[in-house]
Amino acid sequence: MKKCKLYRFGVLFVMLLLLGMLTGCKEEETEGTAIMMSYIGAQNNKVVEKEVYLLGESVEAQLEEVLTLLATAPKKLEYQVPISQGITVLTTNITNNSLVLNLSKEYKQLNTLMEILTRASLVKSITQIEGIDSVTIHIDGEPLRDSLDKAIGAMTADMFIDNAGEEISTYEKVTIRLYFANEAGDGLIAVDRSKAYNTNISLDKFVVEELLKGPGTTTHGVYPTINPDTKLISTLVKDNTCYVNFDSTFLTQVYEVKAEVAIYSIVNSLCELPGIDRVQILVAGSTDVMFREVIPLTTVFSRDLNYIK
Question: Which residue, 118, 159, 176, 189, has most beta carbons within 10 Å?
Fold first, then answer.
């Protein structure tokens, strides 16, 4: 009888111990709103991301948390914070989902590379907050300006191309002309897009990747032409012809646009680049494909302005 009591006591003790361990694990679970913060890599050559949790519920409270995190140096040296080197936040103002971030004059002392990294870190982090879609940076009350002394204005996260570890010094700003569909899906509308891109990526690949992203929410009256789940396998330019190789998802259309509009959104966008006069589209490396059962991809396409509205 005594052994039985001891056995029951031992089982009860183990159960209580396990319950305590489970309870302790539950208390350690992180709570709040998860976002991906962007910091400056330790080598000053890229932007790195780190998941954090915000406890505030209002936009203003979350903004205060984000700015605090962006100014708090990490215990380990795996990254750097952008609000450092004497830079302080003077004022903030949120209007119509857009933040005007007024920083101190120390920001002007950043060199070109650090300024790009700092700006990318700030914009990409702050626009993670639901209720802030863009950020305009002011320096001591004056708008941030580019090398041509032009006010940069509101910036969104997609204006900064993620680099895969290459040196940030290979970035440059470029303006490309993309063609998206009109509302009826039977014509094309030209959209000029200015963006910083990594020159280690070919410009033709950059153009196709931007087409796959679509016109975005800030461009009104134009619509995507390509299934956004399409994967770009490769691009190659040879003898003034750009060869664009997609995976098979390219054949699955999710938007109500004419087949010709989808094809010539790619062709006309690429033919805007110097050195490209023709475009050959492949699917999984093959041209022996009918696009939407009406256009043979054996065709080498040239620019066609008849679809432009």
Answer: 118
| Tokens read off for 47 | 């932007």
pTM comes to 0.51
CB neighbour list of residue 48: distance below 8 Å, 6 or more residues apart: 38, 39, 40, 41, 78, 79
What does residue 281 show for φ and ψ, rounded to 5 degrees?
-100, 130
Sequence-ordered list of residues with C-beta below 8 angstroms from that of 84, at least 6 positions apart, any chain: 71, 73
* Residue 273 to residue 207: CA distance in whole angstroms: 9
Beta bridge partners of 302: 278
The Cα 163–Cα 50 span in angstroms is 16
Residue 4 CB partners (closer than 8 Å, separation 6+): none
CA-to-CA distance for 38 and 51, rounded, in angstroms? 9
* DSSP code for 169: G
Dist CA 61 CA 54 (whole Å):
9
Identify the helix (H) or strand (E) that includes residue 261.
helix 259-270
Instruction: Tell me the CA distances in angstroms from 260 to 72, 188, 304, one per residue in order.
Output: 53, 10, 10
Look at residue 148 in the predicted model and tell me its pLDDT: 61
Q: Within 10 A of 169 (CB to CB), how many other CB atoms are there?
A: 12
* Under-50 pLDDT residues of the chain: 1-29, 163-169
**What is the pLDDT at residue 171?**
62
pLDDT at 14: 46
Nearest CA to 210 out of 285, 238, 185, 196 is that of 196
pLDDT at 230: 96
**The residue type at 99:** L
- pLDDT, position 162: 54
Distance CA 219, CA 221 (A): 7
The pair of three-digit structure tokens given for residue 34, joined into one six-digit string: 């998860």
